[in-house]
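Reviewer 2 asked us to include a model.

Predict the structure of this chain.
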Amino acid sequence: MFNNISTLPTFGDQKGMSVRATDAGGGMPNKRSHRSKREEDPLVAIDGARVRSAIEWKGMSVNGAAGRINVSQQTLDSIVRGKTKRCYKSLRGSLARLLDLPAVWLGGETDLLPSLTSWLPYPELGYQPPLWVDENMRVIRPSAEKGLTQRTTLPPRYQLAAHEICQQIAMAWKRDIGHGNRHAEAALSHLAKGRWNKNPWERVMMLVTRLVSAFWWRRLFLAPPALPVREAGDVDDEFAAAAASALAATLQPWFAGKRELSYKSFVAALEWASSGFGKNPSSGGT
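Predicted model (structure tokens):
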């Protein structure tokens, strides 16, 4: 008899399988998976502020969201409070599906949501290789010598507000084009100017985000100098959410297919935004 049932003799070159005691006094094979959980479901970055903002934007509570993805309230609360900086990839994926947002954005691995486009600085700045500048609803013109010293982004709720109204407008516009609305097609073609010749939808999204940007309205109504970013941040966040909600309420009959959009007037408003709210006339380059 052997005193330790987990230690068995070898037979030739074959080792005996270790066993563990059971309540019945027998043993069951102690099998090990070929891959650890970490390998199958690795830890990835998670941005608590973005997750919290997205949950609130969807009108849910943290506890309610936790229940819908079958995770403990304590786990999700730790994330939204910023105590947990990494979580399993499967959990981040579940949050992305629940909130209908890119997982990489929830992880802070990308600065901006898809509707908030990026574009190259003006070619005359001479960057080699060219640098992408995040569209933070402002025209960024860094010097070629200094370049960009830090990544640029926007507060989460600001992004969520702009992203949602852009998605709603694009969906309704594309629906009209699909139904053969010639005014809808002509309006999009009209906006395909300059650098936007091949990507007019990105220009539409960029100009819509200007309409919900406190920066541009402040630039129109207030004399220089501009407010420091640290003073404008919270106000910009609140303004974007309120402005996007107001614009969505105004356009809701069109979104619902109950009324037609006056594309002539809508494009005129976008072109006004393109010209720096009437201050810097543009031929389509911004």
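The CA atoms of residues 207 and 271 lie 8 Å apart. The longest helix spans residues 229-255. We have added this to the supplementary material.
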